[in-house]
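Field: sequence (string)
Field: structure_tokens (string)

Example rows 1 and 2, in order.
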Amino acid sequence: MRFDLHVHSNCSDGHDEVKTILKAAVRRRLAGLSITDHDTLRGSEKARKIIKEQKLDLILIPGAEVTTAEGHLLVLGVSQIPPRGLSPEETTDLVHEQGGITIVPHPYHPFRHAIGRVPKCDAVEVYNSKHLFGIANARARREALKRGLPMVAGSDSHFADTVGLGVTEIDAMNAKEAIEAIRAGRTRVVGKRTPPQFFIGNTVQSIFLIVRKGVRRRRKV
């Protein structure tokens, strides 16, 4: 069964609404996904509600991309996210207390808030669709193999059109089984690179969010 474990909505820095992302996931015949917005579970909460109301044939793994003291870390299978600014190891310990898992995303990409190493975690994202040249992906894969850590893929999508470009194949019928399969390393990585035009769109979206935050701050002063 095909899962995209790394997707962003407009609940953080993504372009599209959760409902649009879910429609794209269904079109691409994904079995499930995790909406991993930055430091918030709002995207996952919205997705759970929509899937239930519309009776979509999708497995949702609740998640977020947490900002640690060293860089970003994916947390899956949690009902509460750890606070920002902790070490990756401290973040992982708190996630484990909830029965969840942590995945280190794009650990060696120089411009993506990468941790820059593979800390204590449950899996390594060895295929990120937004790595144009594949060097950082290859390095992540080598380190995962060296450490004997489970390997996953993710689209790191910020647009509905790129959902499903990074796929982790997992044999699971629900979110709990998916998390256990990842923890046990019962995964297969499949992926396609994100088309270059979406990198441009992502950059524009990031600039827009920075400007909007600046305007809001000035209005409060």
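Row 2 begins here:
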Amino acid sequence: MNDELRELYQQVILDHNKSPRNFRVIEHANHHSEGYNPLCGDRIDVFIDVEEGIVKDISFQGSGCAISKASASLMSSTVKGKTVDEAEKLFEKFHSLITGKADGDPEELGKLAVFAGVRDFPARVKCASLAWHTMINALKKEKDVVTTE
């Protein structure tokens, strides 16, 4: 990854950390899950309103590092309006990207490609994936708290 692209990616992550999108509670969400990363203390709640198999609204609240919050912000922006199946497939692609198992061009994931460099820092993979695992848990209506350990 060249230096200009790395700088752009850092700016996107910092922007989403400073001004996270969908950082709120959906009062009448029909899906909800909690996530916790005991290694660094990141905590997140994901709220989803699914109607007829479509993610009509998605939001999150919690506290965490810049990567965790930026990932939740970009995740919620990307998943909103998608079908549940599309959201699950995005999770798989994103997880493959950040763990270094991705085949193909990371740019296919649009803005989510900013997290491609996370794979070089194994401890940060958990930060980037917490919101995504929590979203999947919420979609499946699992009651257990998601943990990255």
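free_text_note (row 2): The longest helix spans residues 122-139.
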